[in-house]
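Example 3.
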Amino acid sequence: MNVTDYPILSIIIFLPLIGVPLIALLPEKNKTIVAFIATLSALATFLVSLLLFVSFKSDFTGYQFMENYSWIPSFGITYLMGVDGISLLLIILTTFLTLIAIISTYTAVDERFREYMIAILVLEAGMNGVFASLDLFLFYVFWEIILIPMVLMIGIWGGKNRLYASIKFFLYTLAGSTLMLIAIIYMAFQLKLQTGSMSFSLIELQKLIIAPEIQLYLFIAFTIAFAVKVPYFPFHTWLPDAHTEAPTAGSVILAGVLLKMGTYGFLRFILPLFPDASISMAPFMSLLAVVGIVYGAFMAIVQTDVKRLVAYSSVSHLGFVMLGIFALNEEGLTGGIMQSLNHGISTGMLFLLVGMIYERRHTRLISEYGGIASVMPVFAIYMMIATLSSVALPGTNGFVGEFMILTGAFLTSHTLGIVAASGVILGAVYMLWMYQRVFLGKITVEANKTLKDLNFREHFILIPLVVLIFFMGIMPSYTTRYFKNDVQKMVSFYDSKSPQKVAVTETEKEIIPEVLEKADVLNHE
Amino acid sequence: MSDGIDKQILQMYATMNFSAIIPVLIISGGAILLMLTSLLKSARKINEVMSFVIAAVALFFSIKEWNVEPSAYFNNMIQVDHFSTMATIIYIVSVMMIILLSSEYLTTRNYQGGEYYSLLFFALSGMIFITSAGDLITFYLGLETLSISLYILIAIDTNDQRSTEAGLKYFLMSAFSSAFLLYGIALVYGATGSTSMAEIKNFVTINSVSSTYLVAGSLLLLAGVGFKISMFPFHMWTPDTYEGAPLSVTAFISTAPKVASFAFLFKFYALLQSSTPYPELLENILAALAVLTMLFGNFLALNQSNIKRLLASSSITHMGYVLIALAAHNKQGLEAAMFYFIAYVFMNTGIFALLSKMSRNNDQNLTVENLNGLSQQKPGISLILMLFLFTLSGMPPTVGFFAKFYIFNAAIEAKMYGLAVLGILNSAISAYYYLRIIVAIYMKPANEKPEMEFAAIRYGWQTTVIIAIALIFVIMAGVMPDKIIGSVTGL
């Protein structure tokens, strides 16, 4: 059987949705069957994505498993799918974390279980769609669809402040992405003027010649959309609320995958489409990333709620990812992508662990705990592993990512590198201090004395994550080889555009003088 | 002497091919027939069936005229072309949906008269005349036919004071706006020497829009029509009228009549566009009005808890989006507006059909808080309502998203980037109040003392059919908009 004969990406996207009508038609009471169908859908999707993984040729540069159908021909909109190494790994991460999130929810949610499972499955479809689409219109559609199930998830099953958090999340992300739509349409029209036909395909749009000052506007429009999702420093305020109020599975998916949509957006769209603007804005973007690293870490230190602490640690970690990406060299980009995946795994695991103890005690306040290690020793070990991965101990995946990012950052700016490195130390401070207060010492609260350690299902969820943490930490090249070519291609693309050069090189000017003239006229209008 | 003229007229009629105006003839004849049958016993039941059948026949004939050659009738008083045929189809479909919707709603409101349907048909014929007007006079007649029918329709529920009040308000405002309109027509006539659209176009092509009178006349026309489409600053009547009118009438006035008035604006401004250069003043004024209309609609809706008023305010914003398309003054803009109208008719009728069976025990107007916890008891209805709200707020993959996309496309093609950005920001603002309803339905616990019995929400087959059609349209046209794009690109 040859995988490329089948529209495998579409299968991965739409397979989760097959379970939805089945679940919707079941009566509310049949929780077991609902859980079974949902798990089965997610499992099937995961297995197909593994098939994708196995048949992916890692020595091949460019997109694979392409699917191209005409969708709305009047606007040149196509159903264009394809993955390279970066999106491949993110799709695997999505299908994997979704499966785990579903299994983790069996007991966590009682109310409206059916709808919950539907929301997760729709979410999975949307996220896979975002990572696989290469047509910007299609990408935008998936990007927006994700909002709906996520908002409902936070708003219906969330904690005390869930209404506030869900509305904030919705408005922030929606408002952020609207300008991107205008920028996308603008580019499609420019393409029509320059080549004669309108298209939203990323591959076509990369041929577009845009003057640097226009690029800057487009860069800003796209950046706001992605920066809100990442979240970049001044746009991060929705994150602690949304993370804290979301149910466990919601937090896992939010931290594990949704934030990666932002970093992925930078890698997939902003860097290839707006090289000049990216180069000129890189110092500023790196600076913001470093501010995010330090700010997130300081905020995490003072949190009293474990989940909020993990949420702020995300701000800090994603700052590292962005620092790596905007270093615009091989070390930085590789580290950034690696750290994206790491964060999905380690923070996903942290949220799962917090969820597990919340299910037992119904509180997330650090002061309510203490000495948990003596009643739940196994749980404490898992937590230690997740914590160490989060603080980037050598041997865990976190180390590889952060080390490469810092190397990349030092190559561009020593100052930023040094300040960013302090984030590693601060990370150790808030994580280990939290660990000490929750797990070590004597049990101070009566209710904690009778806590039960993990059950089989919980082990089942956590063990694959632990394996990944060490596997990616000890043998990082197994992961990095998937996106090595893509990163090198990007770096050589950027090397050809040194900051002093203008948007168009001399050779390009010779080849296409007419188009350039047109573009010049347009850009001046 | 008079013999000669008679002969001439007879000859003219004999050579004329009436096929293109058959739909409007059927509708006008139908309106009179329905008025007669309203004298019968149980007139409502009879008229309901009859009106539906007549509308269906008219629809059949207008679809037959799909690829009609542009042709003029009665000394250029009426012009039929693809645009007017298309608009006619939208009106008839909209009215047919309203007839279905009214059937159940009027029963719950205990309304028995048959004139309701006759008035709907008069309004329908008025709308068709507006869009196929070849002369400003025909346009005015059509608009008045429409408006007068609407005054009565809004105030038709004589048992309800609010309905009468709303009708009166609409009447006063509308009469006021008609004065603007006539003054505008007079100025245009003064400037160009004709009320015929073809003549105006000739004049503009030769002389361009240089005369102040013509600009002033077109602005007054804009103001007059602006009342009907609730354009800023003439939007104030909208929430009051929507709230007071019987729900089926609200569903009607918020869709087809607005399309008709807009269709005329597009037609009229297309005449001015034959001027070179196109007066920048008009472009800027339209752009500013579009932005202000969207903004004020949003402001009114943001904290509104009465759902009918909320939808009324949001409809102002929707008209603001269409004004963007008008301001863009290109072919894309016209197509985008037409697409938007088709989408809007279905979205709005759908959501009003859903709301038609949700009423409070004490007959007060429905508020957002009344819907708290609806999803726990009525998951299916809640899901559909949510989908309609998302399509109104322009979320993909529904038709609402694509309609907006089309409009912003037009604005960007016209290089009005600022307008596109402001438009999309307003669209983001509007998401907030639609979300508020979703929050109430899905995220808030049910009220302790519910003022509305969710269990009593039951839809008869007529309403179910409309909801189903609207829902299928909203999703299918969102996922595969190409069919509709194909039909509007010929405009």
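The mean pLDDT of chain B is 89. The first strand of chain B starts at residue 71 and ends at 73.
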